[in-house]
Every structure is written in structure tokens, then in C-alpha cells.
Amino acid sequence: MATRPLFQQIPWCILALGLLLRLGLFAFAAAGSGTERFFTPDSFGYHALAKTLLSCGEFSGIPHGMPELFRCPGYPAFIALGLAAIRMDIYGVILIQILLDVALCFLTFRLGIMLISRKTGVAASAIQAIFPCAVAASVRLLSETLFSFLFALALILILDRKKASVSIKTFSAGLLLGLACLVRPLALPLIILLPFFPAFRCRARWRCGAFIALGAALVLIPWMARNQIKTGYGQLSGVGDYNLLHYNAMALAQIRKDIELTPTWQKLVETAETSLKKSAPDPRNDPQYLRFCRQEGLNVIGSHPFAYAFAHLKTTLGVFLPPATEFLEVLGITTGNKGTLAVLQREGVRAAIQRYFGRQTWPLFLSVPIILLTLLIYCASLAGLLSLSRLAIRKKRLRLADWGFLVLIALFFILLPGPVAHARFLVPITPILSLLGAAGAAATAGRLDARCTTHPSLILPLARGGSI
After folding, report:
1. Fewer Cβ atoms within 10 Å of its own Cβ: the N or the C terminal residue of the chain?
2. What is the pLDDT of residue 459?
3. Which of 128, 124, 127, 105 is nearest to 116 (CA)?
4. Could you tell me which residues come within 8 angstroms of residue 208 by beta carbon, excluding any fewer than 6 positions away?
5. Considering the entire predicted model, what is its pTM?
């Protein structure tokens, strides 16, 4: 039977729904005075770097012209291109992000077709279209939407089993992963490990892994060489070293009262605070400062590894917080930057709610639909994970290696942030959670078993002549 062309398979009504939701939120944000509702504290740094790129052609820190080490150039370059291409300032950039996020719904649909069936792909794209944290991220000047699009496109190339040049597909996937890492450098450990995961099943799997590594290296090495030549700091970004002391080690100190700030630690913290108050040079672009942060952070964490493991796992649950506050801030009902996350980690949910909402409790009731929808998606994703595990135990014909590959990626993004955990860290894996949610919905309806025994796309690669 002939296969319908791809454009006839696209769930246009779902893509339209996703577009309308995002444009509606965009309209509310644009209704405010200026563009402040699109911004978060991190957004200002990205925007300043983009303007410097446009005006001077340099990627340097603001306002003292130091070579930028803390942020990678991917997202500021994206903003700069948007500002140059569409003369609408930030509005044009956000509109491009919205289109990318709708395209991510289509990529989720394609992943569903590849892993189970078209119906599952439609269900997964529908979940992605209404996923609250994805919708909120698309109208904020943050790097998550661009990163998620590049990362999902790379996953499709890796998991695709159509008869085409595997070398070209995997090399292209490596290039996309490298670009994604220039957008969000915290994903570098995953990109280093990805070539070693034979998620695709072909006899030349190590060659495929080598092509992924080569593609990523061609993108990342020039930026690391730039940092080494200009500053002697040959890392991709200074964000990891900075966070190691200011967030990871500090989280440990909060649960272990016997840990006292050393003179070096205290001086590093004071330097960062002073730079914010007096508009001094940003120490996050100082290679010597970043090295001190790394050394001191490793010393503190290395002296209490088990206590830190507990602190990390405890705080990383913050990635599952429903993004209700993001919607309220975009709508102009509340304002952020109140230190709520720190209060949540120290004192719990009730104290964080009091800190954020103060005496105005009525906005909390507006958050209820977002919270319920988010929890419903989480429950469906968990049901899908349990159902797939049950089918794997019963040895159903399931693309088990591919699902395991996606679950490991999801675990990486969930466990990575620790003390800096926020709902935005969940955005890159919303397509995976949407796929699991679609599988959970199918299992609840009693249809997943039937699909796993009849649909040809679920047959193990061994039946196609591949190696396990």
C-alpha cells in the first residue's frame, strides 16, 4: 500500500492549536508597556550580547568589553539575526521562536511515527502543543526553545532507520548537537556521551558514533580555541565553574551547617556581589576567577560527597514545578526576581508561595489550570513509562533500545540542574515526555498492547537485519 506524502500526514489542526496558544500569550505580553514581559533576569545578558554583535561584530562582555566566557554565542547570535532580519526588535525574535516551537510539535509527531504509530504521533504532538512549560518558554527571551528544536532534530536523524546514508545523517546530527551546545553549554556532558550510545542499530555503529563526534567537534572546537587564544581559558563556557561554587557548593552549605565559608569562598562571593552593585567588570568573564570557583567548589563538594548527592537530588525536583509563575509574569499579573527558588529550596513550598504572592492570593487561583494540566501530563508520562517497561519485560516487539535511549536522555536533563533546577530545564525533553504521555494514554485505553504486536515500526531491528 502506498504511503501518503508527509504533508498529508501532518496534524495541521494540532499545529494550528499550538500556534494560536503561543500567539495568544504573545499578544498578552506585547500588550504591556514595552517588551519587559518577554524578559527574565538572564534575558538581559543575551540581549546585550546580541546588540554588541550587531554594532561591533564582537562577542564581548558588557559594559567593559571583556571577551565573553560565561555565555556561548549560539543564542545571542540567533537574537542578532532575528533583529537584523525582522525590524521589529524583540517582537520579531519572539515570533521566530514561536514558529520554531510549533515546528517542535511537528518533530514530536515525527518521533511518534518512528517509534510507534501515526496515531501515537498525533497524540504526542497534541500534548506538546499544550505543554505549559514549552508554551511559556516560547514567548520568553531564553535559549530553551532554540536548543530544544535543534536537539529534537538531531534525535530524529539519529533514530531514523530509512535507507539513506547513515554517515551523512549522523554527521548532520553531530553538527546540530554542536550548535545546540553553543546555545546551551550545560548540555556538553550529554553531547560527549551521545556518540557512545548505539541508539541506532546498524553494523557500522561505531563509525556512526565517530561521525556524530566529528560533527559536534567541528562546531565546538573553534569556540574553545577562541577562548584559549584570547583568555587562556580553553573551556566551552564558564557557567559550569561558576555554578559549581555559587549554587552547588552553596546548596551543600545550606544543609550542612558545619560547613563554613573559607576566606577564598567568601572573597569570591563578595566579588560577584560587588560587580552587580557597582557595574564593575563581570567576574564571570575572568578566567582566573572561574578557575578559583572550580577549585573551591570541588574542594567543598569533594569533602562531603554523600551529603552533596542528597542536596543535589533534593533540589533537582524543582524541574517538575508547574510553570504557573511564568504565565502570570508574561500576563503582567505578577513580577519575578524575588528569590523564590532559593526560599523554596531552603524552607519548602508554603514559604515559597508566600514569598512570591505575598498577600495577593487571588493570582494563585489563576495558576490552578496550569498546575492541573502539568500534573496530568506528568501522570500520563509516568503511565507510559510503566507500560513500556511492562511490555519490555513481556518481550513484546518494541523498539526498546530507542525508548531506553530517550529515557536516559530525559534522566540526564532531569538530574543535571540540581540546585539551579527550574521548569525551564524540562523544556528540552518535553517531546520525550509527550511521547511517553501518548503511550500512557494508549495504555490507559487498552490499545498499546495491540500496537506493539501489529505495527511494523515496532519490530526490533534484528528483524530488519541489523545488529543488536
Report:
1. N
2. 30
3. 124
4. 166, 167, 170, 198, 200, 202
5. 0.90
State the Cα–Cα distance between residues 185 and 187, nearest whole angstrom. Answer: 5
Reported as half-sphere exposure (CB side, CA atoms, 13 A), residue 462 has a value of: 6
Which residues are registered as beta bridge partners of 67?
60
Query: Per-residue pLDDT tens for 377-429?
Result: 999 999 999 988 887 777 665 677 788 888 989 999 999 988 888 888 999 99
Residue 136: name the closest of 328, 376, 326 by CA: 326
Which triple of cell numbers denotes residue 108?
A: 514530536
- Grid cell for residue 418: 540540581
| CB atoms inside a 10 Å sphere around CB 435 | 31
**Long-range CB contacts (within 8 A, 24+) of 34-39:** 35/89, 35/90, 35/91, 37/329, 37/330, 37/331, 37/332, 38/90, 38/94, 38/139, 38/140, 38/141, 38/330, 39/140, 39/141
Residue 16, pLDDT score: 95
